[in-house]
């Protein structure tokens, strides 16, 4: 993408590792390393899996380097120096001011079609998952949902009783201003007045 993002925040870590590891012999076109790293540095990573994939690239290594690690040398080096704290690991303030977020769910793909919209008030800094929980609390008949925990955080499996299926190649896609979110519901933080759409989609 023009802003330096490679795929999304989930794919960025492995993409950087791959490009760094193969840049000497695989170069279909020049890529802007500085721009890509500025995107990573500006992002506040929270998911352990995403952090584990992005950190090797930040120190100029990749998972491929693990095979050739000299553990004794690494141990000696770690006694003498410590890596600086990564700029991607930010801190969070306590949510204060309430904000209003618009949230809608739409199924025009399967079974009985439906579209429901609501506006919920949450503290600023709340995640999309918290927005969904408030919507489900206020109107469980329309906005109830189910999720499962994964190594990448919570994954929404069904909304309004309609579940995605690998057999049907269907899932719930989350968008803002028509663009797919580049983070999951457990980490994405909507801003005041933002309209988040959950659309039952196919891939």
Count of individual beta strands:
8
H/E series? HHHHEEHHEEEEEE
How many distinct domains? Answer: 2
CATH class of the largest domain: Mainly Beta
Give helix % range: 25-40%
Content of β-strand: 25-35%
Task: Tell me which CATH architecture of the largest domain applies here.
Answer: Beta Complex
Low-confidence stretches: 74-93
Structural class: alpha+beta
Subcellular location: Secreted
Pfam family, one: DUF4430
Protein name: IF factor
Main location: secreted
Short description:
Belongs to the eukaryotic cobalamin transport proteins family. With 203 residues, this protein is of the alpha+beta class.
Account of the protein in words:
Helices cover 30% and strands 26% of the residues. The protein is an alpha+beta fold. It folds into two domains: 11-67, no CATH class; 99-202, Ferric Hydroxamate Uptake Protein, Chain A, domain 1. Helix 1 packs antiparallel against helix 2 (33-42) and helix 1 packs parallel to helix 3. The protein contains six helices and eight strands. The protein has helices spanning 9-22, 33-42, 48-58, 71-80, 128-138, 140-143, and strands at 98-107, 114-123, 145-150, 153-159, 162-163, 170-176, 179-180, 195-202. Strands 2-1-8-6-7 form a five-stranded mixed β-sheet, with helices on one face. The chain has a three-stranded antiparallel β-sheet with strand order 3-4-5, covered by helices on one side. The chain starts with 8 loop residues before the first helix and ends with a strand. Keywords: Cobalt, Cobalt transport, Ion transport, Secreted, Signal, Transport. GO terms for molecular function: cobalamin binding. It holds the Pfam family DUF4430. InterPro entries: Cbl-bd_prot, Cobalamin_Transport, Transcobalamin-like_C. Cyanocob(III)alamin binds at residues 8, 53, 181, 203.
